[in-house]
Amino acid sequence: MKFYSLTEAQNAIWFAHELCADKSLYNIGEYVEIFGLLDTEKFCASALRTQNSFDIFRLNFALEKGVPQQFFADPRPEIQCHDFSAQPNAESQAKSWMRQDMGRPVQLIGDEPLFAMALLRVDDDRFFFYHRYHHIICDGASLALIFSDMNARYQSVAQDNMSRSWRDVIEDNNEYVSSSRYLIDRNYWLEKLHDAPPAKSLSGEISAFANSPKPIRITQSISRSDIAGLKALATACRASLAQTFTALCAIYFHSLTSESDVVLGLASSGRWRKNTRATPGMMANVLPLRLHAEPQTTLESFIGAVSRSTREAARHMDYRGEQLHNDLRRGAGFNNPLHSCIVNVFSFELSSKFAGLPTAFHNLSVGPVDDCHISFYEGQSKTEAHIDVDGNPDLYDPAILALHAQRIVRLISTVVCCHVTSPISDLPIVPQDERHRLVQDWNRTARAYPRARGVHQLFAEQAPEART
Questions:
Q1: For strand 115-123 and strand 80-83, is the pairing parallel, antiparallel, or unpaired?
Q2: Rounded to an integer, what distance in angstroms lies between the CA atom of residue 216 and that of residue 388?
Q3: Strongest mean pLDDT among 101-115, 345-359, 370-384
Q4: Residues 6+ away with beta carbon under 8 Å from 442
Q5: CA distance 367 to 22
Q6: Which part of the chain has CATH 3.30.559.30?
Q7: CATH for 4-154, among 3.40.50.720, 3.30.565.10, 3.30.559.10, 3.30.1700.10?
Q8: Can you tell me the distance from the alpha carbon of 104 to that of 160, in angstroms, rounded to the nearest whole number?
Q9: pTM score
């Protein structure tokens, strides 16, 4: 049996998992809703062939002389099939089954598979394809790659397999860490962030390490007209949709924290090399995006600055965010992370059809969340455009998290109607009805009291009650 070192990304997850009491916290997954008559036998066969095709499904882990290692076990392809269609409340029963499986504790050492697949029938012509993975073998971008491969195999479409072996990814990682490019990237990030301010949080508190219960999730839908308007705004500012949404999140963060030096966590697939873009595995990365926001900065100027900053950063995205925190003595163990809020725009293409049948994608978990995590989904076919705001329950309660989600979506609705030369300070971050509640309703503190008597007399009357 040959052992391989863990990649930098895997190594960070290994130690975080070992420190975490909840061994299900690093489960990620989704379900894909499929509408139409599906050949279930053929579907399951395509899933098994996909598992045999990608070697992440064979990954196992062990400790060798106290050092975590990975190795490739014999293939054990498996998919479960469950029919809920005859049960009352079939959809809720299926969702309950998925929630239970997502909460299943996973041990990294042992014979237990680090993934699960299931096809759940909820009606004669409606199915949920569910797949769960431990984050150490899979990331969010991989979910789409795996489902796309299954789609091609279901239709027996001949295609060039552009995926690389996970062994090649391990080798690439080892070469990068010992290369001059690694030092160039490291120096770039250290220069950018050596004097970064202490992180601010929308919650008012900072958590340096997510060792808490599972995140709270609030989902807020976005209208198709607002998505169209957001795309038009991006075009007008010569930016991408992802860059424009990231800019709006930065404006929101700037407005609520009053920070002109804004640092957000920018999530990426980590697949900057062309030969890894079709390879499933854990490559996702989060690196800081540092921006300068002043009240009189125009919307066009700020979005343009975000566009330039993200393009520049993209050339250095192979460097790991976890390593950067260690370099700067920030983050886990140092109680002063570089950023609190992470923005993730799911821009990799999700096929809107499976063998011609409409689909809708539903993410179930992005893994642990230190502070808050804002995920943007453009929406296709039956998948509604929306944002998911995940929050650390030690820092946020559901009502406050819902308020942030609503404000961000309202900000989108506002900016698509604004002129690009509008100063960002003019954007109504807090809606009029909420502003009235905060400024007027909550400040109605007037109370009737005996005006003929002095304050010292009223205080003296209350003092004995306070002592009891």
A1: parallel
A2: 10
A3: 101-115
A4: none
A5: 12
A6: 193-347+368-439
A7: 3.30.559.10
A8: 36
A9: 0.87
Q: Are 387 and 218 in contact (CB under 8 A)?
A: no
Residue whose entry in the numeric block shows the structure tokens 């479960």: 80
Could you tell me which of 245, 251, 221 has the C-alpha nearest to residue 233?
245
Q: Which two tokens stand for residue 185?
A: 């990237």
Q: Which CATH architecture has domain 193-347+368-439?
A: 2-Layer Sandwich (3.30)
| 3-state secondary structure at position 172 | helix
At 331, list the tokens: 């983050």
Q: Does the structure show a pLDDT above 90 at 454?
A: no
Q: Please compute the mean of the pLDDT values over residues 134-145 and round it to a whole number.
A: 94
C-alpha span between 79 and 57 (Å, rounded): 12
User: Is residue 16 left, alpha or beta, with left meaning phi > 0 and alpha meaning psi from -120 to 50?
Assistant: alpha
Q: What is the pLDDT of residues 11-25, one digit of tens each?
A: 999 999 998 888 999
How many Cβ atoms from other residues are within 10 Å of residue 191's Cβ? 9
Place of tokens 């809708």: 360
The residue count for the chain: 468
Q: Which pLDDT score, from 0 to 100, does residue 459 have?
A: 67
In the chain, list all ranges with CATH 3.30.559.10. Answer: 4-154
